[in-house]
Amino acid sequence: MTAVADDCPVAAAPRFGTRKAVLVVAALAAAGLAAVIAFALLSGEAGVATAFRARLVAPSFAHPFGTDALGRDMLARTLKGLALSFRVGLFAATASTIIALVLALVAASGPRWADAIVAYLVDMTMGLPHLVLLILISFAFGGGANAVIIAVGLTHWPRLTRILRAEILQLRGAEYVTVSRNFGKSPLYIARQHFAPHLVPQLLVGLVLMFPHAILHEAGLTFLGFGIEPTTPAIGVLLSESLRYLTAGKWWLGLFPGLALLMAVLAFDAIGNGLRTMTDPRGSQS
Amino acid sequence: MLEARGISFRYGPREPLIVRGFDLAVAPGEVVGLAGPSGRGKSTIARLLARHLRPTDGVVTVDGAVVPARGFNPVQLLSQSPVFAVNPRWTVRRIVNEAWTPDADAMRALGVRQAWLDRYPHELSGGELQRLTILRALAPGMRYLVADEITSMLDPLAQAEIWAALLAVVKERALGLLAISHDAHLLGRVADRVVTV
Lengths: 286, 197
Hints:
The complex is a heterodimer of chains A (286) and B (197). By secondary structure, chain A is mostly helical. Chain A has one domain (18-45, 61-283): MetI-like (MetI-like fold). Helices cover 70% and strands 0% of the residues of chain A. Chain A has helices at 18-42, 74-109, 112-127, 130-140, 144-155, 158-173, 175-182, 187-223, 235-246, 252-279. In chain A, helix 1 crosses helix 2 (74-109) and helix 2 (74-109) packs across helix 9 (235-246). Chain B contains 6 helices and 9 strands, in the order E-E-E-H-E-E-E-H-H-H-E-H-E-H-E. Chain B has one domain: 3-Layer(aba) Sandwich (Rossmann fold), CATH 3.40.50. Chain B is globular, with a radius of gyration of 16 Å. In chain B, the strands form 2 sheets. Chain B has a 5-stranded parallel sheet, sandwiched between helices. The interface between A and B is medium-sized, with 26 and 34 residues.
């Protein structure tokens, strides 16, 4: 009866495919980001202490990123600024992800009017100019790191809400879920075994990819003067301070913090990509 | 005896009736064919019988008792596209084991190879997946199978193999089988009697 070909050889997967490359890049990015955080935690006074003998020194071996108008080491300030950005990004992105998950669950599982309200909220938040909304919320909460976290957290959920809502609706209608129910599986089993493996990767990737947005918006807000206090080393503060010295030819004050911000954003992108590759069975061979 | 007693179905209160007062009985060990042109509700009937949809009117009974809304259903559906009937993020082993753990004989009878079990659904062909969904449906408590165009997307050779394997199991376990198809020749070959909608 069995005319199925017996044990046809399966070609071995390529040794170093795109999947591995993506994962290696993601791991490197994660290590780099971890190093930044470790430095910020361990560096103590570096970058905060002033040294008036070494004001506005161009990049050298002693100060790879140069020093600012108060003689503070720009490398230390940049790394501390990045670490602060990560903290803001972590809290804001987590808050946004939680909001997105709750709204998506309500929209996809609740009554029709709940779905309509969520859709309206999503459209409203996406329809308003992002930066204006950020400035308004941040201003209303009195500025500072906490206000920035609240502002970024309250504005970054709509895209993920849409993705999760669509995913939940699709899962609810999926034939394999009905089949599972027909095999006598409980709603809890279906939620954990069928729904979670689809939703958790979306959540994780969504969370990580929200980071760069959050960091950029934090820097933007701070640059415009609505964010973190100018005494704290934050990337936005460094960039806005550098403006005053750029025309005087002190290029390192703006270039290095800007580049560091760019690298951090790209690193989070790489990690998000790596997570997606890792959790998608379709990528398991490429 | 699997029975449909006057089942009707519509998708919403203002939608037209897709199935209107349909009656059917399938005895254990019997293969009944269900034929009819497209759009007559054959697939809807299949889904109503297997509890994938609840009838707007009428009841589906097994041995005279209404099938409960929850718990293991002795009536299982096999659909035209097995791709949608399996979770794409699960391995084949997990997919089959969700219903039961088949022994080597059960696997061999359907031409399912051990090597497939460690793969993901997208790594198997349509015919291979269809064999797996059949294998999964053969769980111990299952007594009636509703096969909705299960081989219409396969080539004649695979079609013949799958039907021969399925009919052998149906005979051996005295299962009731409702075979739905456009193909009058196919139904003529596999069914004891054919009902037309």
